[in-house]
Amino acid sequence: MPLDPEAEILVLAAARVPTTPLEQLTPQQARDDMLRQTALLGRGEPVEKIEDVLAPGPNGEIPIRVYTPAGRAPFACLVYFHGGGFVIGNLETHDALCRMIANASGAVVASVDYRLAPRRQIPGRGCRRLRGDLLDRRARPAVRHRPAPDRRWRR
């Protein structure tokens, strides 16, 4: 079975990008390499609205990028924790994917940019609490949840 033409273009472009095996890179080099690789995907498809917000966390504010698709509320809300093994991913490396998910699903996508290892431990309690807060706060007009009264969001 032949490869999809768009997938073939991506595979050929990725093959032309020089890379070093991941295990031979420092965390910062791996992050830079992932940014270069995901840049091959391009900017991504347009969505109705993108908003960067800060949510309170147990150790400081947590950046979140909220993608709203075209259409009328209420929307479902998907909380997205990017890939990268808790070491190399971020909001930018998964921007095109989150745009695609928002448009294809018709849901608001809240992409969380958590602190990365090895400086920090794998996200835990703060991310679990944040998931609940996101459903209460950011998607409130669309999903119609009441906000929790104990925390404030900053734009």
Corresponding CATH superfamily? Alpha/Beta hydrolase fold, catalytic domain
Average pLDDT works out at: 79
Which runs of at least 5 residues are low in confidence (pLDDT < 50)? Answer: 138-155
In whole angstroms, the N-to-C terminal distance is 48 Å
Number of spatially distinct domains: 1
Strand line-up in the sheet with most strands:
1-2-4-3
CATH topology: Rossmann fold
Structural class: alpha+beta
Number of helical runs?
Answer: 5
Strand content: 15-25%
* Biggest β-sheet strands, sense, barrel: 4 strands, mixed
Report the CATH C-level class: Alpha Beta
Query: What share of residues is helical?
Result: 25-40%
Name the CATH architecture: 3-Layer(aba) Sandwich
The total count of strands amounts to: 4
- The value of Rg in angstroms is 17 Å
C-alpha geometry: flat
Compose a concise summary of this entry.
This protein is of the alpha+beta class and about 160 residues long. It has a single domain, classed as Rossmann fold. The chain is built from 5 helices and 4 strands.
List keywords for this structure.
disordered C terminus, 4 strands, four-stranded mixed β-sheet, 5 helices, 155 residues, Rossmann fold, alpha+beta
